[in-house]
Amino acid sequence: MDQGFKPKKQTHPRETANVLSLITFFYSFDLFKKGFKKELEDDDIYEVLSGCRSKELGDQLEEQWHLDKKKNKRPSMVRVLWACFGKTYMLFGAMQLIMRTIFVVAVPEALGKLVSYFSPGQTDLTKEDAYFYAAAVVGLGIVNFVYTQNYLIALTEFGIKIRTAVCSFIYRKALKMTEASLSDITMGKIVTLITKDIFAIEMVVHFGNDIWIGLVQTAIICGLIYGKIGVAAFAGVGFFLIVLPLQIFIARMSTSYRLKTSKKTDERIQLTQETLSSIKTIKMYSWENFFNKKISSSRKKEVNSIFKLFCLKIIIIVIGGLSAKIGFYVLIMTYVWLGNYITAEIVYFIQSCFGKLRHLLSILFPIGLTFGAELSATFIRLRSILEAEEVPTPRNHLAVAIKGPAVILDKVSVKIKGVELIKNLTMTIQKGLNIVVGSVGTGKSTFLKTILEDYKTDGNLTIYGKLSYASQEPWLFPSTIKHNILFGEKLDQERYKRVLEVCALNYDLNLLSDGDGTLVGDNGVNLSKGQQARVNLARAVYKNADIYLLDDCLAALDGHVCDYIFKECILEFLKDKLCVLVTNNHDHIQAADRIIEIKTATATYEENKNRVVFELPKSKEVVKSDEIEKVEKEPPRTNLYKEAKKSGKVDYGPTLKVR
């Protein structure tokens, strides 16, 4: 949640570093020096690199997704990622291929010549040649070391960019999903996908180029070995190729296990979130043991699935390692069996080449297959979210100047999972107090969310004016009470004070030591239900809109407070607006200008002919003279998520004496 606070951090030194500093990573020296002297804190960390910021990366991916959606009936995340990052990734691959080929060809040749110099009776190489080949081996080693470290850093940064872009895109998609989609896709699945599954994409970035480069290198190495020892090379390499299909088969098995494991993880996270959100009720009824057993059972099932998955990964790697050792033995024995004489130069040459081949076929390929299987499972899970139904973009929102605030529904229908919740509804809701009534479960909240366009609708829905909405269940975010009410709107001191008064919040704020600067916990955990409902209502009312949709937001209030807010806020403060209020309070219904009665899949809209002027009994008056401390400035902007570190000691003396 945006707290309105953006900490100022130092510009990352890499942005201004020279070539030598980039190659040697000397630009990070100051940070290591600072960490050596004291413990690093949040303020010591540099600003994010300009090329790694989530907004720009998310915008790029989202734009490409919409382009792919226009070109293809079914958009593909693989195509989108390739269009955004494919060229850069292939550039990395081409650079790696060139450097790897140089090292693969040059190092064994130089090492073989250097070793052959020490063979008894050789006269082909002089001492100067030996020095040259020794310098070549050392120089190539240094160049390989410097290049590898810089390549890995660049590739890691590239992988972070892709992961950041995908996570940003998933987050944006989650905000646009309809109620029906969210009922099928749990928040646990979205959390697991962002925090766990997406890492498969990043890991494939690390190994993807190595796979196809490895195939090219394998062909080159096989050619070098064949040129050195002849047909015996086919024996060792052939053994690798025989084992490879088995590894591919096991990798495909791990894909299905990965999907099962992810599903178990989703269930466990969803259960944990639901338990934590109701922890007060659980503790009040002493249900801790029951929920502890449920979460533990869910975790055990998840761990069992993870164990099976890792067993398959280990089998792939073990098969690769064994095949490398057996393949080298088969190659040497075949070469001897064909009647050839082994020299030191041949042994070192084959060992150097085969070492590269063994790394490719016994490590990179198995790991690549494993992560490829995980990537396949990730894209399957990702597709279910990206193809989920989205809330339609607002349409036909016209200025109030054309016509007074109004909501026009013309043959509007709403279907969710094949069930028709609203059928051919036609009505024009006009300015004034419109109260929505109906039995429990008839669809009063669905009616309001239809106007909000949270559901995909058939028919014509035209809205004249801006909308503001207060939900039935209060929604608060971790910040001050003032930030919760303003919700990004500019501070209008007079309107703000008036909203606090009509929502009966002055008395409560006077009881709090920090007033409206009091920090609200997650979901308003440190406020009562009534306080949460009034802050939630105040946020909707503070917004200067033309149409106010209030979904039974007075139900959690005491009777006298409810009547006071109805008179002062609904009838007085919003008297010149179009207000749609869901309630079953008989006294409030009598004061409505018009009544909307919701029935199963339909509704009626009529004038309230028996309208009664609502009066607040003297016994139910709420003190209005209480005022909060005057604040003429914007609320202070603070970083609520910064951890305050404190140090101290615990005195164990009293505890030890008791024992």
UniProtKB/TrEMBL annotation:
Keyword Thylakoid appears in the UniProt entry: no
GO molecular function, one term: ATP hydrolysis activity
GO terms under biological process: transmembrane transport
Membrane topology: Multi-pass membrane protein
Keywords: ATP-binding, Membrane, Nucleotide-binding, Transmembrane, Transmembrane helix, Transport
Segments passing through the bilayer: 80-107, 130-153, 204-226, 232-251, 303-322, 328-348, 360-380
Gene Ontology cellular component annotations, sorted alphabetically: plasma membrane
Superkingdom of origin: Eukaryota
Subcellular localization: Membrane
Ranges where the ABC transporter domain occurs: 407-625
Span of domain ABC transmembrane type-1: 97-373
Designated name of the protein: Putative multidrug resistance-associated protein lethal(2)03659-like Protein
Species assigned in the record: Tribolium castaneum
Gene: AUGUSTUS-3.0.2_14382
